[in-house]
C-alpha cells in the first residue's frame, strides 16, 4: 500500500499546551487563517473530541476531506468515521490532497511517530491548559521554514530521515 506523507499541524505554547476544557485556550484569528490556508483542499484527520469541539458551522471543516477517528461516534454529516488510524489512512488514500493530522492530543501522540512533516504555531504568550502536545525530539527534525506573526511563530519541520 502506498501511504501519503503525514503532516501534523498544531498550535501550542512553549510548554506544549494545546487545549483546556475541551477547547483551545487562545483566540488568534491570524493563526486560524494560517490553519485554513495550509489545510484547505487537503485531508484532515482528527480525534472525536476535536471534532466535537468544532463550532457547528465548521462541521465538517469546509473545503477539506474530514476524517474522524472514533470507536463510538455514529454517522456525521460530511465526514468519514474511521474506527482506527490504519482505517483512516486507507480511506485518506482515496482522496486528493495531503494528509493533515489536526489533533487533539490523543491523535498527536499516535501520529507523531508516523509523521514526516510538522507545522507548529508556537504561541508566544503562556496559557494554562489541561491537554498537551507530546514531547518532540528535535534531533529527529530540521527546520524548513519559519514565519513570524504578532502572537505566534510558525515553524515547519521535516523529519531528518527523509533526506
Ligand atoms: N492547539 C491545537 O493545535 C489543537 C488541535 C486540536 C485539538 N486541540 C485541543 O485538544 C483537546 C482534545 O484533545 P483530546 O486528546 O482530548 O481528544 P482527540 O484526540 O481529539 O480525540 C480523542 C478521541 O478520539 C478517538 N480516538 C483516538 N485515537 C483512536 C484510535 N486509535 N482508535 C479509535 N478511536 C480513537 C477516541 O474516541 P472514542 O472514545 O469515540 O473511541 C478518543 O477518545 C481539546 O482541548 C482541543 O481543543 C488543540
Task: Describe the model.
With 163 residues, the chain is α/β, with parallel strands linked by helices. The protein has a single domain (6-99, 124-145), classed as Dihydrofolate Reductase, subunit A. The chain is built from four helices and ten strands, in the order ββαβαββαβαββββ. The two termini are 22 Å apart. The mean pLDDT is 96.
Keywords:
about 160 residues; alpha/beta; Dihydrofolate Reductase, subunit A; eight-stranded mixed β-sheet; 4 helices; 10 strands; binds NADP nicotinamide-adenine-dinucleotide phosphate
Question: What is the fold's blueprint, element by element?
Answer:
Layout: E1 6-13, E2 17-19, H1 29-39, E3 43-47, H2 48-53, E4 65-69, E5 79-82, H3 85-93, E6 99-101, H4 105-111, E7 117-123, E8 131-132, E9 141-148, E10 152-159
The structure holds NADP nicotinamide-adenine-dinucleotide phosphate.
NADP nicotinamide-adenine-dinucleotide phosphate is lined by residues 10-12, 18-19, 22-24, 46-50, 53, 69-73, 83-85, 102-107, 110, 131.
**Integer-rounded radius of gyration:** 15 Å
C-alpha termini separation: 22 Å
Number of domains: 1
Specify the biggest β-sheet. Answer: 8 strands, mixed
The CATH superfamily is identified as: Dihydrofolate Reductase, subunit A
Widest sheet, order of strands: 5-4-3-6-1-7-10-9
Low-confidence blocks of residues: none
Q: What is the CATH fold-level name?
A: Dihydrofolate Reductase, subunit A
Q: Give the ordered list of helices and strands.
A: EEHEHEEHEHEEEE
Tally of separate helices: 4
| Beta-strand content estimate | 25-35%
Principal-axis shape equals globular
Structural class: alpha/beta
The CATH C-level class name: Alpha Beta
Helix content: 10-25%
How many beta strands in the DSSP annotation? 10
Amino acid at each position: 500500500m502506498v501511504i501519503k506523507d503525514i503532516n501534523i499541524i498544531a498550535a501550542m505554547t512553549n510548554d506544549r499546551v494545546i487545549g483546556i476544557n475541551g477547547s483551545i485556550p487562545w483566540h488568534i484569528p491570524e493563526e486560524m487563517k494560517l490553519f485554513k490556508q495550509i489545510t484547505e483542499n487537503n485531508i484532515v484527520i482528527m480525534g472525536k473530541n476535536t471534532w466535537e469541539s468544532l463550532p457547528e458551522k465548521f462541521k465538517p471543516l469546509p473545503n477539506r476531506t474530514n476524517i474522524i477517528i472514533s470507536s463510538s461516534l455514529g454517522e456525521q454529516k460530511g465526514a468519514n468515521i474511521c474506527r482506527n488510524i490504519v482505517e483512516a489512512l486507507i480511506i485518506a488514500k482515496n482522496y486528493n490532497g495531503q494528509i493533515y493530522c489536526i489533533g487533539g492530543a490523543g491523535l498527536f501522540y499516535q501520529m507523531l511517530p508516523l509523521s514526516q512533516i510538522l507545522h507548529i504555531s508556537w504561541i508566544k504568550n503562556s496559557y494554562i491548559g489541561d491537554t498537551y502536545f507530546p514531547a518532540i525530539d528535535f534531533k529527529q527534525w530540521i527546520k524548513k521554514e519559519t514565519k513570524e506573526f504578532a502572537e505566534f511563530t510558525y515553524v515547519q519541520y521535516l523529519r531528518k530521515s527523509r533526506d
